[in-house]
């Protein structure tokens, strides 16, 4: 089950709901006025699928909001339907529907007008022709598999007393032949190009360590071009299928742990076992305090300053964001902001207010905020010292404000 969205308006419809039967390859193309919600999807399913074919044993979909909602989960559970969501960043899991989407779009592209506002009237004919076409996988048409016969589209010879009727029926017959040829060629073309980039998947086993591709993962580094292509290695905890496995990811990774094998690379064994020392535990066993090796970045999230921390004895895959109030490493903080003066930092004055040295460091969301609102309250001498780009003529008009607060001493440790 999938949706084709952002189509041109045709009779107040701009979305198509595509449903494919995995057994018979029967297709249903359902026009809708907009991208339906989970409740509307359930209504369409009952009206157009259940009324014709009954309840399925399972439904394979992508991870759209309609299919990950609590309503759809409860709907499938109540009807004893197994909901199979696609693996992370791998639409080929629902590849059968994705391929039919391409075939349908190609058919519509051949017949719609220049304004592309009449595609809805071709949907019933496209559905009939597709279901009457012999499939390469089953060697039979969906109609024949479900009904045991091929439906009659038009009688043999067509003769009537009305020339316009004859011409209309001849056009339908000719269009049917052209559509069948286009669908067949489209299926062959999709298969040829898809098979060129595919190879047999490797055989993974439980406990194998693999590298994970980062092309679909948000990295902490400033530029993806110079960032790592793979991260890990991560152990395999479950074999879902020959083409999908489940990995043991850190808790900081807010992504689905099941990946297609095309995103993985088998990690080779360490030629020098025992070279890497075991990871150190907490510095203090009372409150799980870990030692900070370095600070890599800073950001403001929900009006709070956070540091990207590299922990001593841990690799880059364990880097995590920590609130500035939980980092007790004043020497590392001073060194970080000396090397990166444009990064957001915590002000020394005004009760720990957050100071942004330059508005663009916070991104376009904060550029509309007046600069004076992000400046901490301080006296004139401190303002000139901490804001070097401030002109003397502006500093002359500054008012004397409250005295700076004392820095909180730390011992180079932080809470995790």
TrEMBL record:
InterPro entries: Chromo-like_dom_sf, Chromo/chromo_shadow_dom, Chromo_domain, Integrase_cat-core, Retrovirus_Pol_polyprotein, RNaseH-like_sf, RNaseH_sf, SH3_Tf2-1
Domain Integrase catalytic: 1-150
Compartment list: Nucleus
Lineage: superkingdom: Eukaryota
Pfam families in the cross-refs: Chromo, rve, SH3_Tf2-1
Domain Chromo residue range list: 290-348
GO MF: nucleic acid binding
GO cellular component labels: nucleus
Principal place of residence: nucleus
Any one of the GO BP annotations: DNA integration
Protein name in the entry: Uncharacterized protein
